[in-house]
């Protein structure tokens, strides 16, 4: 025992903490330094889900090599396959994941030394450049102004014709790789490694920066494969979404700070900077948009009742929604909606969205970053000129191209574009049953079903119209079916009065959107759906938010005396005046101005059924047949 204690005390403290596997890996690198692959990648951003590799640089067997997106990658595959070990900085979390995604056929060495973690063992923390400063390593005299974000812009400049920008990007990449060898040497020296661990002294910088490592190959201009970006006409220029009017809002957390606002009419943008909620609502409602897209959290994490930290659910439910967790999983840096610095923004966004929806205006929470990826422009922070170039190149016209506008106004245009993508059905909804979704552009999204919503006053003919669509292949649902299920569960009689009372209670307690969602869930597998009995503006808003331009709202009306006769024919003991003036029917008239088409039904049932058949043919034209032609 005494001898064992004496031996332990003689072991250098840092070395004692090295696990056996790491000792073996370091010894392997020292034994075969020529077969250690030093590697670093450049990407269009940090998200492995949305971004892509632009440059891969590596040093192996005394040679520095570079892959540029669009090149043949077989030399990279060969060197990776022949390497006994790989050295990166933050490569376990970053480079390795991108490489396997971009090159499914790559075989990376089993031994992977990630210098970020190795440095932590000797007290060196932070990013690679920070550690270089800590150890007085100065290799970047000519490129000290370049960082990861500048590297993204260099790539975009190359795509626009600047070959010198690519040369600068590759030099930056090779400097990163060269510095890895020097950092590796420095850290190994701190371990005071025993002679039997390394059979020879190795200077790894000689292998990370081999002879000729600063000599660059000749680069050609970016090919059309890289430079061709999607255009509005190609992506959104077909179908009703191409002419949609969308308001985009890049919201701030305070009325004292300007909010970027845009109305995107088709592909023409008009922007402004607005301050008060009153002005934002007035300009938005005046524009009469098909949809409003807000870059702000619009709901709370499930279980939370308020944005404040004093909320009783704070500890149990946290500050982050599921959509934010999903974005984090995809490598997107996103702030939790109830972080103290985000609480005012979240509260403001929710208030504006609620007010607009009560007026029947559809509102989505948007994520503009993904739209910028589709347009192949740098993410937020690149600067006004890059955003202008990208938006204009995508086909968005407007005074913003020549006039001075704020960064927030340009972000509002991008937010509005997310709304256009959503109207076209080219989006993904990140959310849960209990948390309204965050909308992400997605070009290969599954197409929305065709949805017809039918509204109008009592006895106007809504159900006759909807049932005719059902007979033609549409899946039928109505709000009252959900209410009937609730009444049955409570043991309450299914009468018009009881239905209206429960409907009134649901609306009064702010659960109208919940009712709409439950109504749609009954026909969630339908490729064509008819929703009977819209009664509140929120119903229209929800269905636009859910189905975009594939939602078609029909308002059916008839003269009061005609409706009264129909009502009494159907319900001989009913009171038409009382039913028509009930609270749950009180806002039906507001749906008229929201409808896409208004049908006057003062004639017979056959005429109305023919109108339904005509609508079905129009909506399903060019799609797989949903009904048999009569």
Please tag this protein with its features.
five-stranded mixed beta sheet; single chain; disordered N terminus; alpha/beta; eight-stranded mixed beta sheet; 18 strands; 27 helices
- Between the first and last Cα atoms, what is the distance in angstroms? 97 Å
Percentage of residues assigned to helices: 40-55%
What is the 3D form?
A: elongated
Total DSSP E strands:
18
Question: What can be said about the biggest beta sheet?
Answer: 8 strands, mixed
Average pLDDT score: 90
Count the DSSP helices. 27
Strand content: 15-25%
Strand order of the largest sheet: 11-8-7-6-9-10-13-12
Uncertain segments are: 1-16, 625-630
Radius of gyration: 31 Å
Structural class: alpha/beta
Q: What does this protein structure show overall?
A:
By secondary structure, the protein is α/β, with parallel strands linked by helices. Helices cover 43% and strands 16% of the residues. It contains 27 helices and 18 strands. The strands form three sheets. The protein has an eight-stranded mixed beta sheet with strand order 11-8-7-6-9-10-13-12, with helices on both faces. α21 (479-489) crosses α22 (496-508) and α23 packs across α24. The protein is elongated and about 105 Å long. The N and C termini lie far apart (97 Å). Mean pLDDT is 90; it is low at 1-16 and 625-630.
